[in-house]
Amino acid sequence: MNSLGGIRSWPASWRSATKTTASMTTPETVTKVAQVLTVAGSDSGAGAGIQADLKVCAARGVYCASVITAVTAQNTRGVQSVHLLPPQFVSEQLKSVLSDFEFDVVKTGMLPSPEIVEVLLQNLSDFPVRALVVDPVMVSTSGHVLAGSSILSIFKERLLPIADIITPNVKEASALLGGVRIETVAEMRSAAKSLHEMGPRFVLVKGGDLPGSSDSVDVYFDGKVFHELRSPRITTRNTHGTGCTLASCIAAELAKGSSMLSAVKVAKRFVDNALSYSKDIVIGSGMQGPFDHFLGLKKDTQTYRRSTFNPDDLFLYAVTDSRMNIKWNRSIVDAVKAAVEGGATIIQLREKEAETREFLEEAKSCVEICRSRGVCLLINDRIDIALACDADGVHVGQSDMPVDLVRSLLGPDKIIGVSCKTPEQAHQAWKDGADYIGSGGVFPTNTKANNRTIGLDGLREVCKASELPVVAIGGIGISNAESVMRIDAPNLKGVAVVSALFDQECVLTQTRKLHKTLKESKRDH
Ligand SMILES: Nc1ncnc2c1ncn2[C@@H]1O[C@H](COP(=O)(O)OP(=O)(O)OP(=O)(O)O)[C@@H](O)[C@H]1O
Ligand SMILES: Cc1ncc(CO)c(N)n1
Ligand SMILES: [Mg+2]
């Protein structure tokens, strides 16, 4: 805030998220969490207002507390009714959280009456905060008045002058400027300039609703320099809450320590990504659908997906090999198709020599094939490829990326497997959050040069120690699969094979044969 030094007074140490303080007896680690307070209205449809603000901050890794100014009965068709909270009660909420938390940023949305703005101003002067983001919400996109002209004078005279940034859309900018016409980018610029004269340190005039513009242009003004933030307009009905989302994202980025311009740029990109990821989702029957703040409801990930990892999937684990595919003149996709058709219960793409772009395209096709048949597909080593093709998981070795880091990148629902030769490694894999281990090489193999073999005894030892299900790997084929499955270990769920399937004339036939052998050995036990 201007009067308080605002975001200019950011502490130098701010960027280190974790600080360690020594206490008398034990050192104590304190993790600082960036914190935003949103002061806004509730949207029962949860696309805008408080609900959007909470989702954005969660998506951006920032804690968000919420003071509710009004409750709206609102859905994708419009606003049916608005209930204002008594100013005294808004004040009690403000006091409650401002006296307790250490907010980095306060963001305001719907402030429906001058009395509510008044209690906000009073509380901000009692409990100074570092930065204030004001989204001067007045009219919903559906045309409903959320804050009438009665708030204009207190906004202009007392709220805007202490704001670090204001983010009006074109209609709100026009209302704040006494009804000037804003229909072009040039008029947005001059509006931004006039609004800046009212006192906020930065102004962002949003052009989402600018008529007849093929790009979506926002005009940013810092008092000296204009920036036009431009992105192609996304054709979608799901634009409900874009404004709240943008302002909350700016607040979240500021709370983490960004400069204003970079916070605004990140926020614009966040809205843009969220809109394009969810442009075709259908939520509600009205003209103004909400979008997905977590960027997760991608259409192509809504197809069939297993809810949890099933250890029995390790039964016939097929691992592809780029050299073998080249040798037999097969594409990865053809190799995978044949293996799945022959009875492989899980696939791992291990394509050490592949070019990234080509591999990604092939991996995407393999995901489609496997998903349509209910078979999981994992990627060896390449976390980036796994994320990009939305594979079911990854398999990593001891010298690849650490499993706990892989888990944090892939999230809680993906499968992670780790190669382990020793009981200690197996125990560590479990502690780090893996789902299964691959243990071997059981027998000598050409696929991995200089790989120490552990033999059936070594495999048994690892299985005994392992809290996780195990798949055996290394030199296993039709002739020796039975001997592997016969070791006395209930958590040994299957065998992983490379050459036995893929260094062969016909992948389909070999997979069928191995499947039969494994089934027989299971039946005999
Ligand atoms: N169809 C679209 N494609 C791309 N970006 C868009 C689109 N619609 C809005 N935006 C962007 O979303 C942000 C919010 O702008 P907008 O002018 O819609 O705010 P608003 O009217 O306050 O939003 P709300 O719908 O929440 O009331 C801006 O960065 C704008 O450029
Ligand atoms: C509660 C609420 N706040 C803000 C907006 C603006 O999108 C809305 N539609 N509803
Ligand atoms: Mg809009």
TrEMBL record:
It is found in: Plastid, Chloroplast. It comes from Eutrema salsugineum (Saltwater cress). InterPro entries: Aldolase_TIM (IPR013785), HMP/HMP-P_kinase_dom (IPR004399), PM/HMP-P_kinase-1 (IPR013749), Ribokinase-like (IPR029056), ThiamineP_synth_sf (IPR036206), ThiamineP_synth_TenI (IPR022998), TMP_synthase (IPR034291). GO terms for molecular function: ATP binding; hydroxymethylpyrimidine kinase activity; metal ion binding; phosphomethylpyrimidine kinase activity; thiamine-phosphate diphosphorylase activity. One of its GO terms (cellular component) is chloroplast. This is Uncharacterized protein. Keywords: ATP-binding, Chloroplast, Kinase, Magnesium, Metal-binding, Multifunctional enzyme, Nucleotide-binding, Plastid, Thiamine biosynthesis, Transferase, Transit peptide. Pathway: Cofactor biosynthesis; thiamine diphosphate biosynthesis; 4-amino-2-methyl-5-diphosphomethylpyrimidine from 5-amino-1-(5-phospho-D-ribosyl)imidazole: step 2/3; Cofactor biosynthesis; thiamine diphosphate biosynthesis; thiamine phosphate from 4-amino-2-methyl-5-diphosphomethylpyrimidine and 4-methyl-5-(2-phosphoethyl)-thiazole: step 1/1. Its cofactor is Mg(2+). Belongs to the thiamine-phosphate synthase family. The lineage of its organism: Eukaryota, Viridiplantae, Streptophyta, Embryophyta, Tracheophyta. One of its GO terms (biological process) is thiamine biosynthetic process. The keyword Cell division does not apply. PANTHER family: HYDROXYMETHYLPYRIMIDINE_PHOSPHOMETHYLPYRIMIDINE KINASE THI20-RELATED, PHOSPHOMETHYLPYRIMIDINE KINASE. It holds the Pfam family Phos_pyr_kin. It comes from the Eukaryota. Essential for thiamine biosynthesis. Bifunctional enzyme that catalyzes the phosphorylation of hydroxymethylpyrimidine phosphate (HMP-P) to HMP-PP and condenses 4-methyl-5-(beta-hydroxyethyl)thiazole monophosphate (THZ-P) and 2-methyl-4-amino-5-hydroxymethyl pyrimidine pyrophosphate (HMP-PP) to form thiamine monophosphate (TMP). Residues 316-501 form the Thiamine phosphate synthase/TenI domain. Residues 43-286 form the Pyridoxamine kinase/Phosphomethylpyrimidine kinase domain. It catalyses: 4-amino-5-hydroxymethyl-2-methylpyrimidine + ATP = 4-amino-2-methyl-5-(phosphooxymethyl)pyrimidine + ADP + H(+); 4-methyl-5-(2-phosphooxyethyl)-thiazole + 4-amino-2-methyl-5-(diphosphooxymethyl)pyrimidine + H(+) = thiamine phosphate + diphosphate; 2-[(2R,5Z)-2-carboxy-4-methylthiazol-5(2H)-ylidene]ethyl phosphate + 4-amino-2-methyl-5-(diphosphooxymethyl)pyrimidine + 2 H(+) = thiamine phosphate + CO2 + diphosphate; 2-(2-carboxy-4-methylthiazol-5-yl)ethyl phosphate + 4-amino-2-methyl-5-(diphosphooxymethyl)pyrimidine + 2 H(+) = thiamine phosphate + CO2 + diphosphate.
